[in-house]
Design a protein that fits this description.
It is a single chain. The protein has a 17-stranded parallel β-sheet, with no helix packed on it. Strands 2-5-7 form a 3-stranded parallel β-sheet, with no helix packed on it. It has a domain at 8-104. The longest helix has 55 residues, at 584-638. The protein is built from 10 helices and 43 strands. The N and C termini lie far apart (95 Å). The chain is α/β, with parallel strands linked by helices and 639 residues long.
């Protein structure tokens, strides 16, 4: 009892053990109490014989799915005590343990119990799985082409959450066709609320026939489908009538051509998903329409509409523009959408997050003249997969006063041509700079300047830069002095960066740079970084408690000036390793010297090995010459 890590009572340690019976000749009583990890009595297939067993108690062993995989003989046992005076028995020990397991089961990871294969595709008792709420199916090689055959479907109506991932053979999830063949007269309702399907390369259908007539999936709230390249559609047409509680639909990296399959001879259809608040469609290269036939679509609760890399699909065409939800808070648009949303001042009043995708050039006119009226409450602006060289050129339009006061979060991703976020002569008193709270810049390989040299980011709290290989420095010392609110700084994979802070003022050495609120800093995979700052001024970090420096092989010193960081007592160097030696500079210097020493030792080892190989080759050459000489003498003697 109370052995929480025990998996088995008997462990097989002999390959030939399965061939031999194990006999407990005089064992009369067994009690297993509060064994939270116990899976079985034995993990092998051999026969167990209990000729004297009269009493077996199994209580609070929630993971025990079977007694043993082999034959169990207990001729006098006809009941199992499960606690609190409750006695259970079903044919034999194994069957009884399995029934107990299934009845109490709320969560099940099917891959943990491969012995369920025969049960899963056999005759299933109606009482089994009656309490199961959450089922996870991951890498289950024993599955056939259907996950839920008709016999299992009937006992899983209480299931609320289903996750199916990495099952290479799976072609269908629900066998509706098999259920229809049983002539069910009463339409059943499932409790399924969340369905997740991921990395199922052969999946062709979620439902192999339309379930509308016999099964109601009306409780489905969340559907996530990703990396299912053989799947051509999601819903059948009649099924949509039942999806009145659907709140979130996400489809990512799939072969889907349409969301709802078109039926032959179908007329104009009206789709209404009254509770749908999030629709996310990512990287669906074959998607051409929501429904190929004539239709209208209404989603009055929609708040998040995010469509990305669906090149053949115009997502705003799904809706008549006047019926697009006035509750929309997140929206993705591309250059072809601009004409459709111009002069729609009352449609996007609540949009707080805007994603810009696939723009060939900066839409300056749109930003200046329409942006602030169409999106008056914008808070977050993300720009991705476009071909600007400068995101914000010098402007004197409305952008300088109206929309700029609203943007608190700016995210710039995957702009291969981008050289400047702000043009070098961009107004330094611009509210877009002063009001910005968070700035994320990632995968911009041509970026040469994060901001104009004297920019002030007085409200910036988080700055993260990743994979910007043309940046030689992050910010100037003038900009660094303005970062009084900065709390988090993350820089990674910028291979040409020499310093984080570059001195841009001859008098800068006389002034301290104070990062008043900076609590965490991470410098990772910066192969050319020599120091945090290349000047002699004092750096003050009154709030810094976390510093990670990983894979920065050229970083010889943090700064040549004085460094004040009273609360920093360690530096993370990767893989959970912590180092500290007196202060920041001393620690960085020690780390650098260790690397130099290790490299020196490695070079010495390589040189010695090279010399040894040279010596060996030299000896072989000498031996060959000696052998040739004696051969020549022998030939001369013979002649």
């Amino acid at each position: 009892m109370n052995c929480e890590k025990m998996l088995n009572i008997v462990k097989i340690n002999d390959e030939k053990a399965d061939q031999e019976d194990i006999i407990f000749e005089n064992l009369e009583i067994m009690e297993f109490l509060s064994l939270s990890s116990l899976r079985s009595f034995c993990n092998g297939n051999q026969t167990f014989i209990f000729p004297s067993l009269l009493w077996l108690t199994v209580k609070e062993c929630p993971q025990m799915g079977i007694f043993s995989s082999g034959v169990t003989v207990a001729p006098y046992l006809n009941e199992i005590d499960v606690g609190e005076g409750t006695i259970r028995w079903k044919d034999d020990i194994n069957t009884t343990i399995q029934h107990l397991f299934h009845e109490k089961l709320i969560y099940l990871a099917l891959s943990d119990y491969p012995e369920m294969k025969d049960l899963w595709y056999g005759q299933v008792d109606q009482n089994l799985f009656c309490n199961l709420k959450h089922l996870v199916v991951n890498k289950c090689d024993f599955l056939s082409h259907v996950l839920f055959p008709s016999n299992v479907m009937q006992v899983l109506y209480g299931l609320e959450e289903l996750e199916v991932t990495d099952c290479d053979s799976l072609e269908e999830v629900f066998d509706v066709k098999g259920m229809k063949s049983k002539d069910m007269l009463i339409k059943q309702s499932t409790q399924l609320k969340t369905l997740t399907l991921s990395n199922l390369p052969k999946l062709k259908n979620i439902w192999n026939e339309d379930p509308h007539e016999i099964i109601n999936f009306g409780n489905l709230c969340t559907l996530n489908v990703s990396t299912c390249q053989s799947l051509s559609y999601i819903f059948s047409l009649p099924l949509c009538e039942d999806l009145q509680h659907l709140e979130m639909l996400e489809i990512i990296y799939c072969g889907v051509e349409q969301i709802v399959a078109m039926e032959e001879g179908s007329m104009v259809h009206s789709f209404n998903f009254p509770k749908l608040n999030k629709l996310k469609l990512f990287c669906l290269t074959k998607l051409t329409s929501f429904y190929r036939g004539k239709h209208s679509l209404e989603c009055p609760s929609l708040k998040d509409l995010n469509v990305y890399r669906c090149d053949a699909f115009n997502h705003l065409d799904m809706f008549s523009i006047e019926k697009l939800s006035c509750n929309l808070e997140k929206l993705a648009i591309n250059c072809t959408d601009l004409l459709e949303i111009l002069n729609q001042e009352n449609i996007f009043q609540k949009v707080q997050t805007l994603y810009f995708h696939y723009f060939d050039e900066t839409p300056t006119t749109f930003l200046n003249e329409y942006f602030h009226t169409i999106f008056p409450n914008l808070d977050t602006f993300q720009v991705r997969d476009s071909y600007y060289e400068t995101l914000f050129p010098t402007t004197t339009g409305y952008l300088s006063m109206q929309i700029s006061k609203q943007i608190n979060f700016l995210m710039v991703f995957e702009l291969k041509m981008l050289k400047h976020i702000w043009q070098e002569d961009f107004p330094l008193d611009h509210p877009l700079l002063a009001n910005l709270h968070e700035l994320y810049v990632m995968n911009c390989p041509s970026l040469i300047s994060l901001a104009p040299s004297s920019t002030s980011f007085t409200n910036l709290t988080c700055l993260a830069v990743d994979n910007c290989n043309e940046l030689y420095y992050l910010i100037t010392s003038s900009t660094a002095k303005s970062l009084i609110q900065l709390a988090t700084l993350i820089i990674s994979n910028c291979e040409k960066m020499l310093d984080v802070v570059k001195i841009d003022d001859e008098k800068a050495d006389q002034e301290d740079i104070i990062f008043q609120n900076l609590g965490g800093m991470q410098l990772t995979s910066l192969s050319s970084l020599g120091s945090f700052c290349n000047g002699n001024q004092t750096l003050v970090f009154p709030s810094l408690t976390t510093l990670n420096v990983e894979e920065c092989p050229q970083m010889e010193i943090f700064s040549t000036g004085v460094i004040v960081a009273p609360y920093l007592t360690e530096i993370g160097v990767g893989e959970g390793i912590i180092r500290w030696k007196d202060d920041i500079n001393t620690t960085i210097q020690h780390l650098f010297q260790e690397k130099v020493h290790n490299i020196s030792n490695l070079n010495s080892f390589v040189k010695k090995k090279s010399n040894l190989n040279s010596y060996k080759h030299h000896n072989i050459y000498i031996h060959e010459l000696v052998f040739a000489f004696f051969c020549l003498i022998f030939l001369m003697y013979e002649s």
